[in-house]
Amino acid sequence: MASAELQGKYQKLAQEYSKLRAQNQVLKKGVVDEQANSAALKEQLKMKDQSLRKLQQEMDSLTFRNLQLAKRVELLQDELALSEPRGKKNKKSGESSSQLSQEQKSVFDEDLQKKIEENERLHIQFFEADEQHKHVEAELRSRLATLETEAAQHQAVVDGLTQKYMETIEKLQNDKAKLEVKSQTLEKEAKECRLRTEECQLQLKNLHEDLSGRLEESLSVINEKVPFNDTRCSQYNALNVPLHNRRHQLKMRDIARQALAFVQDLVTALLNFHTYTEQRIQIFPVDSAIDTISPLNQKFSQYLHENASYVRPLEEGMLHLFESITEDTVTVLETTVKLKTFSEHLTSYICFLRKILPYQLKSLEEECESSLCTSALRARNLELSQDMRRMTAVFEKLQTYVALLSLPSTQPDGLVRTNYSSVLTNVGAALHGFHDVMKDISKHYSQKATIEHELPTATQKLITTNDCILSSVVALTNGAGKMASFFSNNVDCFIASLSYGPQAASRFTSPPAAACMLQYKKRAAAYMKALRKPLPESVPYEEALADRRVLLSSTESREGLAQQVQQSLEKISKLEQEKEHWMLEAQLAKIKLEKENQRIVDKLKSTSSGQLAGLAQESTVVVTTAVQDEAMAKASLEPVQSTGLIGILTRTSDSEVPDAESREDLIKNHYMARVVELTSQLQLADSKSVHFYAECRALSKRLVLAEKSKETLTEEIKVASQNITRLQDELTTTKRSYEDQLSMMSDHLCSMNETLSKQREEIDTLKMSSKGNSKKNKSR
């Protein structure tokens, strides 16, 4: 009973301790929040002090202006007082001078009245702003005092609770010591543990048999059918190629095309807006062609001149994003890497807007301070300054959400997948806000342009520039409205496309995994395309073997063929030289023959027929001179044959010498036959050389093809070896994982056996102690 009461008390104390601990956490959180609020209030107080100092400076400037105006009024009154006696003396000067002085006086009175009214209005505004600032300052100080008192109270409560916790801990430690002392009385319950140990042994035995059977079965299944199961791990599962949804990809590409068109229109409108604003600064309130503009407007114009370097990259980034979305890719946030580039370009444009915003506001203030500015125009300028601030804020908000959407493709842990839909919804809201701001700017600027056109000093250049700015603002408004409605209509499609990914995987684990998945997808598409490609007509097996033998024999005899080609080329060159030589010889012989024929004809005409013997001797000399290089070495009466390059020449005895004409015909026919023979030999040599050249070219092509096939085969062998090593590594990793599991199971079984052995030893000790106690009781 005492132990039950102690346990109940201990549980109550533990519950109270947990409650106090929770309250302590809540109080600490409250104290931290109050400290943050007090810091924010101090910051607000500092800002209010700064605004008060600014108002005081404005008040000082206004008082200085009032003093100047008062001095001017005194001077005007003195001049008026001096002009009155002069007017009395010069009454005879005529009615024209009196009317002129009266008009000047009325003008001065009106100017003075306007300045007095403006001074009074500024005094009222300053007094109201001062009273409002004092009221806000008093409220903030009272709130700060109350928050400080509350923080002190919370701190006191926290100190009391910590003290109470320390006392409770000490009390619990004392109770724990008492419970440890009383736990010795529970040793009697060891008898009941015997039955439990026996039951545990039986359960352990059955469990061991069941686990061993399951282990053998799972190992057999793994070894036979499942070498590597990549669906268990989300990181491996993210590398699996998902099902290709062509309709989804075409729709995303169409959406990207529409977004690109909208961004191009928006970029054009922004370029026109900044350019025409720069032109307007150059002509209003001071025309740069007449007078120099202020340094502020010069700096503002210089910054506006750089707008294209910040606006054009937006179109380029959107174009790159559109080009990255193709029919073959998987379009989700993890794979749209080009969205990061567009986000960076948008960030640079936001920096440009932040840089020109102060100059734009100061330029509008300078227009308000101009003497040409009316009250209505001043009100429109103030509204435009507020609109420009809102426009910059909306662009910053839009850039923040676009940067968040680009995080999954670069930093997967930067944005949780469950927040994708909310970020897309906020992007749509930001676009609608941008449209509203542009509508206000268009409205206020049209009113401002209307007022400026009614001014008497408005030039045609100012009117044209204002119309151009209005057209660019209207184009911006229309583009923002189209973009906002387009995004709102397609936000459901964007949210639905977020679930498009690997099966049984919550997300792509990282951008490298998405890149690997896309690479695997391309390889799978190329493999399927290769499977669908029709096979070329194959060469018959016998013909292929014959071609292989020819190729091998030709490659083996490549050096021999090269030598043969070289020899044939040398022979061809020699034959060409001989051909040229004998053509020259034939020409010389023909010339000599013509000369001799002419001489013979001349002699026949001049001499009589008795001189035929001398003529025959001369013609014989001519024949011998024509063939002197190939003449016979020995002269005999029998016919002798001479073999050479000029063929076979048969000579007869002097008794068988034919007449002159038959001898000339014989020489002519011999030379013609020799020339024909040489030309046929030359043609044969040419044909053989062409044939050898074709064979050499075919052999070189075969050699190049063989080397290419060798390189491809070596690359395929390398890829296959890499695949084999990768599969072996995967197999080893799976084996190691299952071996680790088996070792863990065996360790668990060993630990259970050890616990059982310890329990048995404790039971044995309890038995021995109980036996000793029973013996002592018996002896007593």
UniProtKB/TrEMBL annotation:
Stretches the record annotates as Disordered: 84-104, 760-780
GO CC annotation: early endosome; membrane
Coiled-coil annotated spans: 3-72, 137-196, 558-592, 696-737
Predominant place of localization: other
Record keywords: Coiled coil, Endosome, RNA-binding
Low complexity compositional bias, start-end: 95-104
Location within or outside the cell: Early endosome
Domain Protein phosphatase 1 regulatory subunit 21 N-terminal residues, every copy: 11-112
Pfam families documented for this protein: KLRAQ, PPP1R21_C, PPP1R21_helical
Single GO molecular function: RNA binding
Name of the protein described by the UniProt record: Protein phosphatase 1 regulatory subunit 21
Biological source species: Heterocephalus glaber (Naked mole rat)
Gene name, Swiss-Prot/TrEMBL: PPP1R21
